[in-house]
Amino acid sequence: MDITKMFSMLQPKEDEDDNGESEELNRAVCEDDYQTLDNLLCQDRYKRFINRRSGWGVPSTPLRLAATWGRVRSVKVLLAHGAEVDSLDVKAQTPLFMAVSNGHRECVKVLLDAGASPTGSIYNNCSPLLIAARDGDVDILRQLLDHGAETNVQARLPEWAANSVACSGPLYLAAAYGHLECFKTLLLYGADPDYNCTEERVIAQIKEPKTLLETCLRHGCRSDFIQLLIDFGANVYLPNLAADETAPRSKGLELLLQARAHPKSLMSQSRLAMRRLLKQAGRPHALGQLEIPTVLANYLRHQP
Question: Which residues form the SOCS box domain (predicted)?
Fold first, then answer.
């Protein structure tokens, strides 16, 4: 295909009555000239283009552009003038999704406080939480979880595509990329320590579903990840690992075998019971709000 023709197809069609207003808005956003942006949006001829997608490549609304570039002041101005907080681009990505993807923590906070959906768009097969877990940004991860993001969220795939790859949710991504703090945070917020997938329909379509323990061991994840899964109540008898007495054992495998040989202490079982009760009440991360001694609170939150 001719490159000129391809780019002409990517460029959105201009409205007949757009005499450069969209371009001026986008220029103000790119330069983070929030005062000029505010002045422009006070005029009706500009404000009617506040949610219009324009520009080359992936056409963007001014808010998506501001979120992508981390222009916090422009984001605030646009929202104050009524920009649609969950507007979609041609890839069904929201401004929040773009802010998370580019690691703009302050923009993420502003968008979430303005009511942006922490789950992103139902028309996009990814989600902001999956991106944050993959990239290891624990601050953004906590913001999303505090605003109601699902800890066991899966990529949105058609039913025929459900397989073991489809079960690689936030916990697996955090482990695969070595992000221990994100991994621990997800567990503290109630992520499933076994399959990292709560959809029975998906698990039923997989001949041999792999537990997180098994997956982490097979992929050589650090023993810290194995220990956290054990501490958070993963079923140590589920992993189906063939024992090779001649092969050297990893530290993670040693931890698993020790957990199978020795029952959990009463304190450890009590901690798990409290976590399950809080999860059932919809407040899995509320341990820090309990009026109990600091040493006990730290133990319940798996802190030293």
Answer: 263-303
